[in-house]
Design a protein that fits this description.
alpha+beta
Length: 177
């Protein structure tokens, strides 16, 4: 009976420890929007000069990924553009009219990276209308995932705990025999 309790405790502990590594898709309705934005839990579409942002605090080694689609509703020389910014880590132009062509689109793309530096600030997705206010391009993001990778110390604690459970089980079996 005690062994079952130990195994149950170990299972719960493992779930808590490994839970940090489980990919959790962000609820985009909890992100702050500015400009013309349509939000649902899994996606957000920004049009014209608009964007979404949310404050995060996590350590180096965090995985960051999302799917995105840029629709150019303009033509050159009006080079509308879309971007993602992670404070202290990256600032990337995802696409622009020059890259997809007049009235073109990027098709669905996937972005994924491991952030090398800690983040204590905003993650922002934005689209910008360049040089005019007549034709507005849009950016859609989906399945935004920010997930920490457990540190080696976490795995070491898990292995040590499982080792102690194994030792205790073996000791009890010897006493019973």
């Amino acid at each position: 009976m005690k062994i079952r309790k130990l195994l149950t405790a170990a299972t719960v502990g493992f779930a808590l420890v490994s839970g940090a590594a489980v990919a959790a898709v962000e609820d985009l309705t909890t992100w702050t929007a500015y400009g013309s934005v349509s939000q649902s839990p899994l996606s957000a579409t920004m049009t014209g000069d608009s964007g979404i942002s949310k404050s995060f605090s996590f350590g180096a080694g965090t995985n960051f990924s999302f799917n995105w689609f840029f629709q150019a509703n303009d033509y050159l020389p009006y080079n509308d553009w879309s971007a993602v910014n992670v404070d202290g880590n990256l600032n990337i132009v995802l696409s622009n009219v020059g890259a997809v062509g007049d009235y073109g689109n990027s098709g669905w793309q996937t972005f994924s990276t491991t952030l090398l530096n800690p983040v204590n600030g905003m993650i922002t997705f934005s689209v910008s209308n360049a040089l005019d206010q007549a034709l507005w391009s849009s950016l859609t993001v989906e399945n935004v995932n920010v997930s920490a990778i457990p540190e080696p110390e976490t795995y070491a604690l898990l292995i040590a705990g499982l080792g102690l459970i194994g030792f205790a089980t073996r000791r009890r079996q010897r006493r019973a025999a």
